[in-house]
């Protein structure tokens, strides 16, 4: 499994764009990159997933360079309610690796200040 | 509403007692998972199941047991062999063999030792 490295914590202010970078130097050809968000005392929630280049949804954007050794989660104009822990996961969704892909490290604790 | 439910929200265990945490899903997902989360830490995989009547150990299975008699249900038993059971327990489910596999989490059960 590709190991991921993220900053332990980040601070931001309301209305700013936040970029959280995840390093995954050993990413394999079939691996996808997935980000989850977790609020205190709740289960993680899927935010976005991508394989290469850029993916955007109503919540966030995910930027993946050509070498795929890192990825950046971008949260536009954060609010206080975006204060949470954000996890970067890398894994192969194929059935042969089933169940082995969901390694949640400590994540990045984002604090949005007023 | 489709989703995953966990019960109870809080559970207290006495020394030497076995306790069972419930997890039910109506998403028609084949795969189900149990994670443990300690304060300020990421999630660690306890057990997972790809299909009814089959399950696999995760990274920290010792002191835990599971069953998968129905597709919708994946109960976790914390046995007396688990010497440090105090934690937040999360159940999740996902589609089997989906090209882009993502997990859906329940609200969690917090287990405390008396």
- SSE ordering of chain B: EEEEEEEEEEE
Put simply, the count of helices of chain A is 0
Strand content of chain A: over 45%
User: Main sheet of chain A: which strands, in order across?
Assistant: 1-9-8-3-4
Note the main attributes of this structure.
A: 114 residues, mainly beta, B: 114 residues, seven-stranded mixed beta sheet, 0% helix
Give a topology summary:
The complex is a heterodimer of chains A (114) and B (114).
Chain A (H helix, E strand, L loop, with lengths): L8 E5 L4 E6 L8 E7 L6 E6 L2 E4 L4 E4 L5 E6 L8 E8 L16 E6 L1
Parallel strand pairs in A: 1-9
Antiparallel strand pairs in A: 2-7, 3-4, 3-8, 5-6, 6-7, 8-9
Chain B lengths: L3 E4 L2 E4 L5 E7 L5 E7 L5 E9 L2 E4 L6 E3 L9 E3 L8 E8 L9 E2 L3 E5 L1
Parallel strand pairs in B: 2-11
Antiparallel strand pairs in B: 1-3, 3-8, 4-5, 4-9, 5-6, 7-8, 9-10, 9-11
Can you characterise this structure?
The complex is a heterodimer of chains A (114) and B (114). Chain A contains no helices and nine strands. Chain A has strands spanning 9-13, 18-23, 32-38, 45-50, 53-56, 61-64, 70-75, 84-91, 108-113. A five-stranded mixed β-sheet of chain A has the order 1-9-8-3-4, with no helix packed on it. In chain A, strands 2-7-6-5 form a four-stranded antiparallel β-sheet, with no helix packed on it. Chain B starts with a strand and ends with a strand. Chain B is built from no helices and eleven strands. Chain B is globular. At the A-B interface, β3 and β4 of A face β4, β5, β9 and β10 of B.
């Amino acid at each position: 499994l590709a190991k991921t490295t993220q900053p332990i914590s980040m601070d931001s202010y309301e209305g700013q764009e936040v970029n959280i970078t995840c390093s995954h130097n050993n990413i394999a050809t079939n691996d996808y990159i997935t980000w989850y968000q977790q609020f205190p005392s709740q289960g993680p929630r899927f935010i976005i997933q991508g394989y290469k280049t850029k993916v955007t949804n109503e919540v966030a954007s995910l930027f993946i360079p050509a070498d795929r050794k890192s990825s950046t989660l971008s949260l536009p104009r954060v609010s206080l309610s975006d204060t949470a822990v954000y996890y970067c996961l890398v894994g192969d969704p194929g059935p042969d690796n089933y169940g082995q892909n969901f390694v949640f490290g400590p994540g990045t604790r984002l604090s949005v200040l007023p | 509403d489709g989703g995953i439910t966990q019960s109870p929200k809080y559970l207290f265990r006495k020394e030497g007692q076995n306790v069972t945490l419930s997890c039910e899903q109506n998403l028609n997902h084949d795969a189900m998972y149990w994670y443990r989360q300690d304060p300020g830490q990421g999630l660690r995989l306890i057990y997972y199941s790809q299909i009814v009547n089959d399950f696999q150990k995760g990274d920290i299975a010792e002191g835990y047991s599971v069953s998968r008699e129905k597709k919708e249900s994946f109960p976790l038993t914390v046995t007396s062999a688990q010497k440090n059971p105090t934690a937040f327990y999360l159940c999740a489910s996902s589609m089997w063999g989906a090209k882009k596999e993502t997990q859906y989490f329940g609200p969690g059960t917090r287990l405390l030792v008396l």
